[in-house]
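Hi V.,

Quick status before I head out on leave. The structure for the redesign project is tokenized and pasted below; the design run finished overnight.
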């Protein structure tokens, strides 16, 4: 076979570029590499995030590795910094709201548990439709519904819980943090964007009623993306003096409202029966200063309550698993994990503990 000569190309007159002469088989190679890019774009993927794949036609089946592969999620700190810096550069200004209701003596907890934006279910397979648009609609309507139901109480403060599988996947390969494949309807970054927009609107609804404390609960579907989302929201509202954030990646979070001790976690780790002792061990001062103690857990998508008694005549710890607004996807439906979809809220009195349980059904 005659050896081919290499060429640096001929410079075109009047242009800074060079025109290369290619053999027919070389043109075919170029076109096949273009096909990689086109297939990625057609399927909503960033070509730089595709590590490898197959190119198939009627005559051959070729495996390829992408030399331009960029695993952006490997550099988590840089990814987070880019997002937060971009938001800080144009974070909106929120005027300080002065509250003059001296009679306010209630805490309202709003907890959107396991929203799963970017989860996909089709009614003809599962009996219920679910997608990112439905998830956002339920989050907004549920927040508004809980606020309306709480309007008869003198709300002093709102505890708004973020995290707990806000997002259904945690990477560009459409899996959870640990690699479990999921049915999705969006590119991972578009899902992140609409989750941010959704929660900004929910928080803005809350600050129109009372000052807001926001706590993030890391979770198993979106451990990385969920932490990024919490940091992004904090950057967005950094100019508001009516909002505080706890975005720590610590699994169990604690919050004290006068005579109330509140523990928050996703609920996929540890043993629930040991939770009262864990609470007392991790936060002994808060335990000693409170009479009414509660654990709010998520993950299982349905409601479950367990009462622990630390004495004969008074309540020790009440543990509650929250309902989810997310409908069952195909795997959950076939496995009989079917839940009553809802968003829940709770009213806590300064002195007398939890006084009301509010539910917004869909």
């Amino acid at each position: 076979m005659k050896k081919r000569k290499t060429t640096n190309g001929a410079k075109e007159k009047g242009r800074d570029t060079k025109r290369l002469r290619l053999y027919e088989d070389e043109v075919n190679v170029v076109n096949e590499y273009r096909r990689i890019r086109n297939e990625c774009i057609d399927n909503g993927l960033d070509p730089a995030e595709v590590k490898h794949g197959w190119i198939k036609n009627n005559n051959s089946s070729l495996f390829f590795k992408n030399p331009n592969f960029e695993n952006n999620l490997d550099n988590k700190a840089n990814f987070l910094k880019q997002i937060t810096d971009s938001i800080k550069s144009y974070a909106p200004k929120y005027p300080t709201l002065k509250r003059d209701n001296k009679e306010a003596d209630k805490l309202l907890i709003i907890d959107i548990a396991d929203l799963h934006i970017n989860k996909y279910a089709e009614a003809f397979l599962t009996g219920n439709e679910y997608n990112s648009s439905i998830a956002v609609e339920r989050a907004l309507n549920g927040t508004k519904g809980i606020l309306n139901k709480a309007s008869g109480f003198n709300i002093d403060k709102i505890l708004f819980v973020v995290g707990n599988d806000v997002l259904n996947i945690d990477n560009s390969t459409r899996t959870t943090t640990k690699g479990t494949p999921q049915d999705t309807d969006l590119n991972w970054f578009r899902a992140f964007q609409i989750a941010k927009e959704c929660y900004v609107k929910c928080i803005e609804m809350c600050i129109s009623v009372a000052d807001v404390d926001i706590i993030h609960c890391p979770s198993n579907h979106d451990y990385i993306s969920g932490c990024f989302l919490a940091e992004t929201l904090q950057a967005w509202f950094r100019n508001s003096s009516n909002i505080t954030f706890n975005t720590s990646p610590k699994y169990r979070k604690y919050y004290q409202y006068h005579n109330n001790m509140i523990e928050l976690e996703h609920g996929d780790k540890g043993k629930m029966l040991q939770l009262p002792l864990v609470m007392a061990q991790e936060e002994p001062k808060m335990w000693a200063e409170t009479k009414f103690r509660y654990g709010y857990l998520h993950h299982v998508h349905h409601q479950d309550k367990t009462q622990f008694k630390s004495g004969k005549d008074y309540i020790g710890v009440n543990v509650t698993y929250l309902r989810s607004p997310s409908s069952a996807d195909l795997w959950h439906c076939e496995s009989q994990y079917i839940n009553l979809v809802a968003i829940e809220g709770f009213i806590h009195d300064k002195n007398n503990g939890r006084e009301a349980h509010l539910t917004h059904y869909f």
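Above is the designed sequence. The chain has nine helices and 15 strands.

G. will cover questions while I'm gone.

Best,
W.
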